[in-house]
Hints:
The chain is of the alpha+beta class and about 110 residues long. The chain has a single domain (about 5-110), classed as Winged helix-like DNA-binding domain superfamily/Winged helix DNA-binding domain (Arc Repressor Mutant, subunit A). The protein is about 35% helix and about 25% strand. The protein has three helices and seven strands; from the N terminus they run E-E-E-E-H-E-H-H-E-E. The protein has helices spanning about 40-50, 60-65, 70-90; strands spanning about 15, 20-25, 30, 35, 55-60, 100, 105-110. The strands form two sheets. It has a four-stranded antiparallel β-sheet with strand order 1-2-3-4, with helices on one face. Strands 5-7-6 form a three-stranded antiparallel β-sheet. Helix 2 (about 60-65) crosses helix 3. Residues about 1-10 have low confidence and may be disordered.
Amino acid sequence: MLMLTNENYLHTExxxxxxxxxxxxxxxxxxxxxxxxxxxxEFNLLTLLMADAGxxxxxxxxxxxxxQRKLADCNKSINSHMANLRKKFLHVSTQPxxxxxxxxxYIFLTV
Length: 111
C-alpha cells in the first residue's frame, strides 16, 4: 500500500502541479493535456514524488513506500522505473520533470 508523505493528498481525486495531473479515480497521468501511459508502480512513484513536489525524496523512502523492501533489494528496480518515466516524459516535454540528486534521491520539479 502506498503511503503518501503529505496527508492533504489522502482524500483527493487529483494532484495537479505545474503541467502534471494525476487522477486517482482512473489512475491516469496528464502532462500538458497529453496522456502519459504509466504502469501502476510508475503511477505510485509519481504520486510519492508529487506529494512533496520540490523536495528531495530519498531512494530509501522510495524503496520503503513503493517497493516495501530495503534499498539494497530494489536499487536496480528504482533506477529502471525512473529511466522509464523519464523516457515517457521526453515524448511530451522538452524540460525535465524529475531531477536526480546523485546518490540521494529524486525531486519532482515545480518550475
